[in-house]
Amino acid sequence: MNPETKAAYQHCLNIAKSHYENFPVASWIVPRRMRWPIAAIYAFARKADDYADEGDFNEATRLQKLDAMTECINAIYAGSTPDDPIYIALSDSIQKFNLPADLFHDLLFAFKQDVTQRRYADFGELMNYCRHSANPVGRLMLYLYGQTDRKSLGYSDAICSALQLINFYQDLAQDYAEMNRIYIPQDEIRAAFVNESYFKNRITDGPMTLLMRQQYQRASKLLNAGAPLGKTLKGRFGLEIRMICAGASRILQKLDKQTDDLYSRPRLTFGDWVWVIWTALKS
Length: 283
Fold this sequence. Notes:
The protein is mostly helical and 283 residues long. It has two domains: 1-116, Farnesyl Diphosphate Synthase; 117-131 and 144-283, Farnesyl Diphosphate Synthase. The chain has helices at 3-17, 32-53, 59-77, 85-97, 101-116, 123-133, 135-145, 150-170, 172-179, 186-191, 196-201, 206-226, 229-232, 235-257, 270-282. Residues 22-26 have low confidence and may be disordered.
């Protein structure tokens, strides 16, 4: 690996390490050959997420910046790498692991959707968002690992969609207050006799609790549906997946216990991580 590419990967790894995540990013557990490519993918997604959410850009500018990222991805697959550390590292990973272009385009589609769409009519519409925003990440990980059979991809999709939903549930208040977004299906909100004032005023009562418990249960079923992936993947990457599933399950437990405040974001404590590691090791 030449010095420029190595420095580009280190740049991406620094980005990954600088952001707090409940779920590990390019951790020491995953196989060494996967760590830098994971960091490159994460840095790419982080850049797109910042364009979609951060700063004082108007909607048109956000979309223009995301369109420019699409052009950069197209350039890489055309054999011309943009002069940016993230794209230099990403280009190297794409070539080494034969990563499909459509997975990056799906991610960018989701970030553009974040700019333009703030409500979801039903669960099917929300799952279509997850198909673009979360599932490509899991599929890219499987390409890095080298196990892309149909069953493994299906397991991965279930896990990633569940993780995306759990992230929504952790950020109910923040998403509404900062971005005017609600990621709970509108038809289910109406059926529970809940309205947008609940999100605005952080109301926790019986109807809202029942609504959210319905969401938690569905996410838990999705997570359990994908959990066998942690056993079919061998070695350290399998352990990483089992840890991610255990961590997600723990967060769902914490969310379910927040009966006095459905809008606070739970954090995994040292004791929680001990439980996560023990659960993953014995699975």
